Write a sequence for this structure.
C-alpha cells in the first residue's frame, strides 16, 4: 500500500510485518503518550526484541507494563538511559554490548523538553546533549552491536527523529555554542532547532562514513501534542510562539502542520523498516516519504556535517567510524 500523510503506524506495521519479524529494535525515549512508546507498541507484535529506554526507572516500568499488557507475546527489555549524562550513556551502552542479540535497528527518538538554560553534569546545554551529544555517544558505543547485524541480505538502520523546526525556527547548528554554552544568548526554541538540525546532519554523515554497512535516516513526524509538551515550561514557550492556544490545544492557524500520534509514528516505522529506502540511505523523510528537498540549506551542507561530527567526537571523547 502507498504510505502518506494519513497513514497510521498500525497500517505501516501491517504492510511491513515481514520486514519487522525477527528484528531486534532499540528505541530511546519511550514514555507513555510519546512517539517512542507508540512505535514500540505497534512493532512489539512482530519484532524479536524491543528495547525501551528512559531516564526514570519508575516511568520506564510504567511503559514496560503497558506494553506487556497490550502485547502479551512481546519481548520487551527495559534499559535505563539518561542521555543528558555521559556516565549514564556509557553504563547503558555497556549493558547493550553485553546482550546476546545484535541490534538491527536503533531509533534515536529521545529529546529534552523546551525549557530554561541548564547545563548537564558534563557542562553542556541540556537540549543539545539529550538530543545530540548523548545519542551520538550512545550510537558510537553500541556500534559493534549494530555492525554485527549486517550481512549479505540485510543492512542495519539507525533512525533519528528530527523536526521541520530545524528550518522554521533556526539557522543550523552553532558549533561554538555546542562546545561553550552561553546562557546570555540561549533561547529554548533556537536550541531545539539546533538539536533537530544535528539530527539530520548526523545520519547523513553516519551513512557516508559507514560505507554501506549501516543505513541511517532522519525524519519529521509532524507537530504532535505528545508527552513532550506536558510541562508548564514547554507550554509557555509554545504559547508565546503562537503554536498552541490558551487552552493548550494546537493553533491551527500557526505555520505548524499538526498531526496525530499514530500518523507521526508511521514515518518512524517507514524509516526503520521500509525496504524501498535501501536505495536512498541518508534520506530525510516527511509523511512516510523521502523529502530531501525539505531540508534547509544550513542543514544539508556535507561540510557542516563533517565539522559537527568531528567536534562531537572530541566533546564526547570517542572516535566514531
Amino acid at each position: 500500500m502507498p504510505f502518506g500523510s494519513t497513514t497510521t503506524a498500525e497500517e505501516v506495521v501491517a504492510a511491513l510485518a515481514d520486514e519487522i519479524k525477527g528484528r531486534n529494535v532499540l528505541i530511546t525515549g519511550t514514555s507513555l503518550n510519546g512517539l517512542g512508546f507508540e512505535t514500540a507498541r505497534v512493532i512489539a507484535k512482530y519484532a524479536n526484541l524491543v528495547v525501551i529506554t528512559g531516564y526514570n526507572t519508575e516511568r520506564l516500568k510504567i511503559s514496560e507494563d503497558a506494553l506487556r499488557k497490550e502485547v502479551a507475546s512481546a519481548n520487551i527489555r527495559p534499559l535505563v538511559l539518561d542521555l543528558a549524562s555521559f556516565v549514564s550513556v556509557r553504563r547503558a551502552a555497556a549493558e547493550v554490548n553485553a546482550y546476546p542479540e545484535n541490534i538491527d535497528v536503533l531509533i534515536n527518538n529521545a529529546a529534552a523538553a523546551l525549557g530554561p538554560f541548564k547545563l548537564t553534569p558534563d557542562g553542556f546545554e541540556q537540549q543539545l546533549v539529550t538530543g545530540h551529544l548523548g545519542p551520538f555517544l550512545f550510537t558510537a558505543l553500541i556500534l559493534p552491536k549494530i555492525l554485527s547485524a549486517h550481512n549479505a541480505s540485510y543492512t542495519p538502520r539507525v533512525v533519528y527523529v528530527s523536526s521541520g523546526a530545524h528550518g522554521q525556527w533556526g539557522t543550523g547548528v552553532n558549533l561554538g555554542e555546542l562546545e561553550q554554552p552561553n546562557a546570555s544568548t540561549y533561547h529554548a526554541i533556537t536550541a531545539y532547532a539546533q538539536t533537530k538540525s544535528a539530527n539530520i546532519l548526523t545520519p547523513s554523515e553516519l551513512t557516508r562514513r559507514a560505507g554501506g554497512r549501516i543505513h541511517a535516516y532522519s525524519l519529521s513526524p509532524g507537530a504532535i501534542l505528545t508527552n513532550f509538551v506536558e510541562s508548564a515550561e514547554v507550554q509557555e514557550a509554545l504559547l508565546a510562539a503562537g503554536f498552541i492556544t490558551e487552552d493548550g490545544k494546537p493553533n491551527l492557524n500557526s505555520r505548524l502542520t499538526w498531526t496525530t500520534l499514530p500518523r507521526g509514528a508511521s514515518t518512524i516505522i517507514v524509516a526503520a523498516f521500509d525496504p524501498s529506502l535501501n536505495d536512498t540511505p541518508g534520506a530525510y523523510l516527511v509523511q512516510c516519504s523521502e523529502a530531501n528537498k525539505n531540508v534547509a540549506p544550513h542543514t544539508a551542507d556535507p561540510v557542516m556535517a563533517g565539522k559537527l561530527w568531528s567536534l562531537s567526537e572530541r566533546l564526547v571523547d570517542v572516535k566514531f567510524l
